[in-house]
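Table 4 source record.
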Amino acid sequence: MKTRFARISEWTLSLLVLAAVAACSSSPRQPAPVEDRMGARSTSGEVKPLPGAENAGKPGYYTVQKGDTLTRIGLDNGQAWRDLARWNNLSNPDVIEVGQVLRVAPPGAAVETSGVVVRPVTSSAASPANGAASAAKSPASSPNASTTAAAAEDFSFAWPANGQVVAGFDEAKNKGIDIAGKAGDPVLAAADGQVVYAGAGLRGYGNLIIVKHNNTYLTAYAHNQKLLVKEDQKVRRGDKIAEMGSSDADRVKLHFEVRRQGKPVDPSKYLAAR
């Protein structure tokens, strides 16, 4: 009886040892994209303000919230994550802190309280010919939010896929439109631009491509099966940039977003009727 009890004890101990070894040998967890520190303490116990705290609440700046990533912040503000990393001198773009204040507008750009980025006129842009100099001096030629918005409304996009729209735009529930199709169907660039993101690091989007078209518009292409372009690559309207899929989705579809100054707008207003 004693021998049987000893064997059971040895067997139980062996299981515990194996479990401990397995736990120690498992791969380490990836660092969270946001560290919740809310200010670091010095050796004296004094709380140090986080980077950029002096700019909190100012136009052109954003305070990091729990769950944020640099890619998400860039998408929501119409910027490339690489630009955000450069403007904020981030040595590791994968680590940002809750409460940290980031610049989300280009240095030197005027930002109105509405958040609209207004870029200054360069000397080359203000050199009209054939007596148009007087018109250039008029107040109407100065850049402001209204003229920027008016110019932006003339922008249009090509359809990024040929399937049927199965879900329309809803600012609260669906920040774009969903286009049905078959796995492997071509996903096309909606306009000329530069790829500012290509990866699967944004929760809920699966394999995602973000293209920046100008200082006003970004487009996003989500749930792809395969990505065919890389970050910083330039694309032309109609170029095949991905293959449709169902990554991080319940069915094969393309989720297509148009972002104006980082804010989602209804893509159907920018697409030709068909």
